[in-house]
Amino acid sequence: MTTTVSEPDSKAAVLDTHERPTPPLWGLLSLQHLFAMFGATILVPLLTGLSPAVALVTSGLGTLAYIIVTGGRIPAYLGSSFAFIAPIIAAADIAGIPGAMFGALGAGLVYLIVAALIAAFGTGWLIRLLPPVVVGPIIMVIGLGLAPIAIDMATTGGGGDYDTTKFLVALFTLAAVLVYALVLRGIFSVIPVLLGIITGYVLALIVGLVDFSQVTAASFIRVPDFTIFFDGFAQGLPWQVWPLLVPVAIVTIAEHIGDQVVISRVIGKNVLVKPGLHRSLTGDGLATMIAACLGGPPNTTYGENVGVLAITRIFSVWVIGGAAALAVVLGFIGTIAAFISSIPTAVMGGVAIALFGVIAASGLRTIVEGKVDMGEKRNLLIVSVILVIGIGGAVLKLGEGLEVSSMALAAIIGVVMNAVLPGRDKAGDTATILGPHG
């Protein structure tokens, strides 16, 4: 373990983690983080049939819980996780939205179990379980496996027949996101998705794809449509959804570790040691469980907000907490929730094409930055099998209504292959990102 994470970036902090800004500035800085996470956080519920308002509320509550658990030492915002999109859709088809939330609750429980094991035995076992040769292709599976959903949204508006107008709106939205991401600078460079949605929405409004009926009928203040996970389970809990969602925690835990490393480098403090990875994972798990109990998508730490930290050098946890509070309040404004719901599916399809592709590319980046030697047959086989099983849609049926999804199956097989195939040390794929404290 030779890579350190405690060296700060070149510039000093404008506000350190414990420092609180003055009230007027505090609001603006928190609003900036709200903008950074907003587009992606509402996209997940729009794709899965959940409530965007509930997603905002649960992301805010989850972030506040995370801040409390980590002792206010990690400036991280938690928003909707893309890794759970396909499993939530599949689970909802089997047991409805409450059933999908029950599965998400199980995924959050995995976080708590792993956190307890780290507290007891350290982190070395986890890194050997999830090296880049396993994590990289699994992340690619998440993005590429969602590709058909993005294309369906873009070409048909989420169902029905092919529609050229909808597809052109989706392509226009996609082009806007790409241009904004490459051209804009400063604070606008961290919200290209949000700006792209706005641009696509304007075109959709011009061509008549926007329905304002829900917006005009909505009241200004409205309690979000919370879904309690145990509603409707008179016949027993739907345990059959756990194989669909629980194994996804393998992927999101690996992503969580990566985010903690990046945060450590940005703020110049090794948060993997203090407050510790076990506390960080506990906070993330509790945030996911809070979301599951209220009908929101599972939460994860957001790279978009880490980007804001790096750009502004403002690491104040008070600012992150302010953004979380704003998200909770925003979720109770009925007009805003209805307006978000009026965004045409084709617009979100254009955004999804970009975002799902970025997820897949992030998996490839994990392989490259992890220095995985693809010349080694062992690594080549692990990556190949994970990709084919995950993207090919293979499922393991264990009984009536009980099956392991393709993404979960790919993750499990990848972990097993990495553990049992010979030549692991020679392959050099177990280098850790945790540094000397791991």
Protein architecture, described:
- By secondary structure, the chain is mostly helical.
- The chain is built from 19 helices and 4 strands.
Q: Which descriptors apply to this entry?
A:
single chain, 438 residues, mainly alpha, two-stranded antiparallel ribbon, two-stranded antiparallel sheet, 19 helices, 4 strands, 3% strand, disordered N terminus
Write the layout of secondary structure elements.
Elements: H1 23-48, H2 52-69, E1 78-80, H3 85-121, H4 124-129, H5 132-145, H6 147-156, H7 164-183, H8 192-207, H9 213-217, H10 242-245, H11 249-267, H12 272-294, E2 299-301, H13 303-312, H14 317-331, H15 334-341, H16 345-369, H17 377-392, E3 396-399, E4 402-404, H18 406-420, H19 424-427
Antiparallel strand pairs: 1-2, 3-4
Q: What is this entry, summarized?
A:
With 438 residues, the protein is mostly helical. The protein is built from 19 helices and 4 strands.
Can you give the helix content as a percent range?
Answer: 55-70%
Strands of the biggest beta sheet: in what spatial order? 1-2
Q: Work out the radius of gyration.
A: 21 Å
Tell me the β content. Answer: under 5%
What form results from the Cα inertia axes?
A: globular
Q: Secondary-structure element order, as H and E? A: HHEHHHHHHHHHHEHHHHHEEHH
